[in-house]
């Protein structure tokens, strides 16, 4: 699957953000976050933006790292 899930999982682990916490801030079910983080399903581009906004609300550093790593071509 895609890069977004790999990066999301790594960032969530590094900053101690649970799937449930991210899901709550995004107002979605935690199963959606599970699917992205475990590369079962790729988030849409609109969802990636929502993930960044939610991460910013939880931890701005996590959001910045997610954005940076997601955009960085060397992570592909």
From TrEMBL:
SUPFAM superfamilies per UniProt: lambda repressor-like DNA-binding domains
Protein name as it appears in the record: Helix-turn-helix domain-containing protein
GO molecular function, one term: DNA binding
Cross-referenced Gene3D superfamilies: lambda repressor-like DNA-binding domains
InterPro entries tied to this protein: Cro/C1-type_HTH (IPR001387), Lambda_DNA-bd_dom_sf (IPR010982)
Domain HTH cro/C1-type intervals: 8-63
One Pfam family recorded for the sequence: HTH_3
């Amino acid at each position: 699957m895609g890069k977004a899930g790999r990066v999301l999982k790594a960032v969530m682990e590094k900053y101690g953000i649970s799937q449930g916490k991210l899901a709550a801030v995004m107002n979605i079910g935690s199963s959606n976050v599970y699917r992205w983080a475990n590369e079962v399903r790729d988030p849409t581009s609109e969802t990636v933006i929502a993930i960044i906004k939610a991460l910013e609300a939880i931890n701005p550093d996590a959001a910045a790292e997610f954005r940076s790593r997601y955009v960085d071509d060397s992570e592909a």
